[in-house]
């Protein structure tokens, strides 16, 4: 509602360039960013397939969206592939959303981000990848594990979620995506609109 300043826009633009995404939107917390991501991409007609160990904030987003939730075995792309294929066969036009993290902090495990994105692309599913624990630590220049995705997999990656509260040693978070998805968030996300900007 209030508080955005030119410095916020500058940070969003620099982050977008750094991550190779079209646009970034800042949030006061990672919890709000993840909640906003799921609610923007899912509704009661959506099937969400989530890694069994995803963060609570993403699960809260699924509940808030009203979507149906199905969990797949941790980092098991074969399990995800089977579930996606079954869901697509049962509902050729149904919206499918996949939720995962690029680095699961409690386990220290990571999925193959490129294979995960390609798996989603093959069944027309959107992917939200939470990079909170990878950014600043993993990938080229610390830019996470989603950086450099190409082809259909890159198009399936709807949103990257990141936080400043881990490797960057600050507060706040962001969502990075293409212009259309970020504009949709800007116009419709209560988690963004009905709060104050980063300090």
Please outline what is shown here.
With 199 residues, the protein is an alpha/beta fold. The protein has 8 helices and 7 strands, in the order H-E-H-E-H-E-H-E-H-E-H-E-E-H-H.
> What is the tally of helical segments?
8
Helix content: 40-55%
Strand order of the largest sheet: 1-7-6-5-4-2-3
Quantity of strands, as a count:
7
| Helix-and-strand structural type | alpha/beta
Radius of gyration, in Å, reads: 16 Å
Distance between the termini: 14 Å
Tell the overall outline: globular
Largest sheet: 7 strands, mixed
Low-confidence stretches: none
Order of helices and strands: HEHEHEHEHEHEEHH
Estimate the mean pLDDT confidence: 95
Beta-strand percentage range: 15-25%
Structure report:
The protein has helices at residues 6-19, 30-41, 56-65, 77-90, 113-122, 151-156, 179-188, 190-193, and strands at 23-27, 47-51, 68-72, 96-101, 126-130, 157-163, 173-177. It is of the alpha/beta class. The protein starts with 5 loop residues before the first helix and ends in a 6-residue tail after the last helix. The mean pLDDT is 95.
Helices and strands in order, then pairings?
Elements: H1 6-19, E1 23-27, H2 30-41, E2 47-51, H3 56-65, E3 68-72, H4 77-90, E4 96-101, H5 113-122, E5 126-130, H6 151-156, E6 157-163, E7 173-177, H7 179-188, H8 190-193
Parallel strand pairs: 2-3, 2-4, 4-5, 5-6
Antiparallel strand pairs: 1-7, 6-7
Helix pairs in contact: 2-3, 4-5
